[in-house]
Amino acid sequence: MFFKLALKSLLNRRGSVILTLMAMTVSIFVLLAVEHMRYQTKQSFANTVSGVDLIVGARTGSLNLLLYSVFRIGSPTNNITWESFEDIASKPQVKWAIPIVLGDSHRGYPVMGTTGVYFEFFSYGNQRGLTFEQGHAFNQVFDVVIGSDIARTLGYSMGEKVVLSHGLASTSFSQHDDRPFKVVGILAPTGTPVDQTLHVSLAGIEAIHIGWQQGIKMPAASITTDHIKQLQLQPESITAFMLGLKSRMATFRVQRTINEYGREPLLAILPGVALSELWQMMNVLENTLRLISVLILIAALLGLSAMLLASIRERNHEVQLLRIIGAPPIFLFLLIELEALLIILLSTVLGVSILYACLVTAGNFLASEYGLYIQSNILSGSALHLVLIVIIANLAAAAIPALTMYKSAKKI
User: Fold this and answer.
1) DSSP 8-state assignment for residue 250
2) C-beta neighbour count of 26 within 10 angstroms
3) Which end of the chain, N or C, is more open, meaning fewer C-beta atoms within 10 Å of its C-beta?
4) 271-313 helix and 62-70 helix, angle to the nearest 10 degrees
């Protein structure tokens, strides 16, 4: 009877209740969305690379090097000569080295030139290695291995012909259409930028640029694909490279050696340290978003309290009737609290449902445009704590009109 009475009371004031419900739904949606996006963004970045001791590139900022070498965001300032890479990779402390060449794309997706070492030693998450959903690593010059998102979004399958574009723009008028690649492997999903990347050999990168000068194909340059396959192609320079060391104890010593390298200015960074710097820079933005979402919630709670207070003036007849049939003042106090609880519970369900629908709908867009892999599972421990705090705050806000109802009931 208690629950039924509270429900009928809300339905009797459906106009103001619906507006309050909408305000609470929006506030809960914003609060949970900010917290979920913040947590998932950190997880997405942190899980992208694992087991890499150092990332080496041309002298630039550590964040810039991390972003373009791992997350394919931004552009490198300069390249590294192949001789420098071989010299550092041959040092006794180095266990493996993965060269990276960037600068080309396919329909907006980045192309990365590398070697077979990449598929053997690169890992993500908690030391999870790359696996193939179909096919195998590249063996020939014009073989390409694609990420799972590319295969799904573009509908590519094994044996598909792929034409690369010069440059990183989503729309390019410089196509390497005379030397197409064949899909020989599709990687299993990783939830990292690997899913959005096409992987080719260093020889393949060199092959498609034969006869090109400063990003322009020379008309007189003609060489057959069969002839290219017979050449011993070796890059003159690379964009960056990743190092795995035999001992973690040597990390800082090798880093100092690379940063003081005499042949050319290089920078070696620790991925974890660079990520920490990134989050320190993002702290102000995180706190600002949190503050905005909390202020929106407070405004909604004040609106709820005002709506309940206004309803009390209209419910004098109801209060008198309940008192006549023997309802104590505490009953009326709890009635107001129950009405507020019903509103917040329904708002929470609506807010969570709308957020889930938005994440499912926008997940592919965030991954393709920003490299953010946001999971739709929003019922995490932090989200449940937030919901609990919101419910307690809602009951606290409803205590003011509930006390008003309690005092008015005692006078009758």
Assistant:
1) G
2) 18
3) N
4) 90
Provide the phi-psi class of 256: left if phi over 0, else alpha when psi is between -120 and 50, else beta.
Answer: alpha
115 CA to centre of own chain? 27
- Bridge pairing between strands 198-201 and 143-146: antiparallel
Q: What angle do CA 271, 275, 276 make, to 5 degrees?
A: 120
Residues with Cβ within 8 Å of residue 263, at least 6 apart in sequence: 81, 83, 84, 87
Q: Where are the domains of the chain?
A: 2-45+282-410, 54-269
The C-alpha atoms of residue 263 and residue 111 are separated, in whole angstroms, by 28
**Range of lowest pLDDT (26-40, 48-62, 174-188, 207-221):** 207-221
Burial 377-395 (b: 16+ CB within 10 A, else e): ebeeeebeebbeebbebbe
Measured in residues, the chain has a length of: 412
Structure tokens at 203: 């020889």
- Is the full-model pTM beyond 0.85? no
Alpha helices for 314-380 (secondary structure H) = 316-324, 329-370
Who has greater pLDDT, 212 or 99? 99
Name 80's Cβ contacts closer than 8 Å, sequence gap at least 6.
56, 57, 58, 237, 238, 239, 240, 241, 264, 266
Give CA–CA dist 105/72, Å, rounded.
11
Q: Which two tokens stand for residue 267?
A: 């920078």
* Residue whose tokens read 């008192």: 323
What confidence tens digit (pLDDT) does each residue in 126-175 have?
788 999 999 999 998 899 999 998 998 899 999 999 999 876 655 555 67
Retrieve residue 275's tokens: 């990520």
Residue 102 amino acid letter:
L
- Shortest CA distance to 287 belongs to which of 38, 63, 33? 38
> What are 44-47's contacts with CB under 8 Å, separation 24+?
44/191, 44/192, 44/371, 44/372, 44/373, 44/374, 45/71, 45/275, 45/278, 46/275, 47/124, 47/125, 47/191, 47/192
The helix/strand count (H/E) of the chain reads as: 13, 17
* Neighbouring residues of 51: CB distance < 8 A, sequence distance ≥ 6: 121, 122, 123, 127, 244
